TrEMBL record:
Coiled coil: none annotated. Keywords: Glycosyltransferase, Membrane, Transferase, Transmembrane, Transmembrane helix. It is found in: Membrane. The lineage of its organism: Eukaryota, Viridiplantae, Streptophyta, Embryophyta, Tracheophyta. This is Hydroxyproline O-arabinosyltransferase-like domain-containing protein. It comes from Hibiscus sabdariffa (roselle).
Amino acid sequence: MKRVSPLFLVLLVLGFFFATYNLLTMIIHYKTSSEEWEDPFLLPGNLNEFGGSKAKYHVALTATDAPYSQWQCRIMYYWYKKVKDMPRSEMGEFTRILHSGKSDSLMEEIPTFVVDPLPEGLDRGYVVLNRPWAFVQWLEKATIGEEYILMAEPDHIFVNPLPNLARGQYPAGFPFFYIKPSEHETVIRKYYPEEKGPLVNIDPIGNSPVIIRKSELEKISPTWMNISLMMKDDPATDQAFGWVLEMYAYAVASALHDVRHILREDFMLQPPWDEEVGKKFIIHYTYGCDYNLKGELTYGKIGEWRFDKRSHLSGPPPRNLSLPPPGAPESVVRLVQMVNEATANIPNWDTL
C-alpha cells in the first residue's frame, strides 16, 4: 500500500473539524432560537425535548350554567388541580369564563369570570358562537397574570402534565382531520380573499386546544367573533361548516392576522379513535364510546357497554361507572377511570 500524504491527513482532519463544528452550531441554534423559526410546521414532534416557551400559561375555558356543562367543568377542574404542580407542567391559574350573564352554583368551587352572552337570538341556537364573544370580554376586563393562555373546553381531561407547547410568537394547536380549508375554497374566500395568500396559510385547527400569547389572542379574538357571526349569517357557509363553523372562524381569523400555529398531534387524543394514551396530554371525550361485551367497537350503534357524555344532558353521570369490557382500548379505560376518580373525590357530586 502507498503511504498516505501528510497533506492529505491534515486536510482530512480539518474537514472533520469543520463538519463537527457546523453540526454543533446547528444543534445549539436549534435549541436556542425559540423566537426565530421561519416555518412552525418544521418543528419536530418531540419539541419538549428542546424546550418550549418556558413560561406559565393561564388555563381558560368557556362554559354555560347548564348541568351538562357544569359536571364536565367540575371533572376538568379536578384534573387541572391534580396535574398543575407535577414535573414538566407549566400551568398557571385557571378561569371558567361563564357566558350565561349571571353567577351559578359553582362560583365558590371553580375560579369563574362571568361575561354576557350574545344578544338573544344572535347565536341562532348555536351556543358555541358565544365562545369568541366570551373571550373578547374576558381579555378586555379580567386581570390575567400569565403571558400565555391555553384555550380549553369542559370535556378536556389532563391525562399528563402539560408544558407550554407554544414557541415564542408561534402558538401551538391540535390539527383536526375534518378542518380542510382547501376543500371549501369558494366559501373560505368570502372571508380570506386571494390577496391575503394561499389557503395553506389557514391552519387545520379550532380554537381549542391552543396555547397562545395573550397579546396575539387579543388581536385575533375580535376578528374571530366577527367572522363567526358573518359565517353563521351566510346560509352557504353555515351549511358547509355546520357544527365546526366557529372552529373555521378561528382558523381564518388567525390567518388574517398572519398567525401560524405549531401543529401538535400529541396535544390531545380522542377516544375511541385514538386507542393509546402514551405521552399525549389531553383526553377529549367528545365522541361516544360504544362496545359489545367482547370489547369490540360498535360505533353508530348503541353498545352493550357505553360511555357518552350526551347521555347525561340533564345532570351528572353516577359515581363508579362500570369499566369497559376486556378488549376495549387503553384510552377508553383510562377515560372512565379518570372520570370515576374525579367523581369519587368531588364533594356533593350527586346533589349540587
